[in-house]
């Protein structure tokens, strides 16, 4: 079974995603779990987690800055 997207395609796609589209990508990876080697799945989840943490941290800073106005 071939995955819809290769590891390198997903890796390059993750930085361009926002908080609403990250769960969609995560669901796609979970559905095609058998098509990727375990090492790649672990790396993809780590990249998604880091991206999610980055977006959340920036959203908090944005809300914090808006509270002063």
Key phrases:
67% helix, mainly alpha, single chain, 69 residues
CA-based gyration radius = 15 Å
Tally of extended strands?
0
Net shape: elongated
This entry's quaternary arrangement is single chain
**Major β-sheet annotation:** none
Q: What portion of residues is helical? A: 55-70%
Mean pLDDT: 85
Q: How far apart, in Å, are the first and last alpha carbons?
A: 54 Å
Percent strand: under 5%
What structural class do helix, strand and pairing data support? mainly alpha
Helix and strand pattern:
HHH
Return residue spans where pLDDT drops below 50 for at least 5 consecutive residues. none
- Count of helical segments? 3
Describe it:
The protein is an all-alpha fold and 69 residues long. The chain contains 3 helices and no strands. The radius of gyration is 15 Å and the shape is elongated.
Question: What is this structure, in a nutshell?
Answer:
This protein is mainly alpha-helical and 69 residues long.
List the helices and strands and how they pair.
Blueprint: H1 7-13, H2 22-31, H3 38-66
């Amino acid at each position: 079974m071939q995955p819809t997207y290769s590891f390198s395609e997903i890796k390059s796609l993750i930085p361009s995603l926002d908080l609403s589209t990250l769960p969609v990508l995560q669901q796609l990876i979970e559905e095609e779990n058998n098509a990727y080697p375990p090492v790649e799945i672990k790396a993809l989840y780590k990249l998604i987690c880091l991206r999610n943490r980055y977006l959340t941290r920036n959203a908090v800073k944005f809300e914090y800055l808006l509270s002063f106005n």
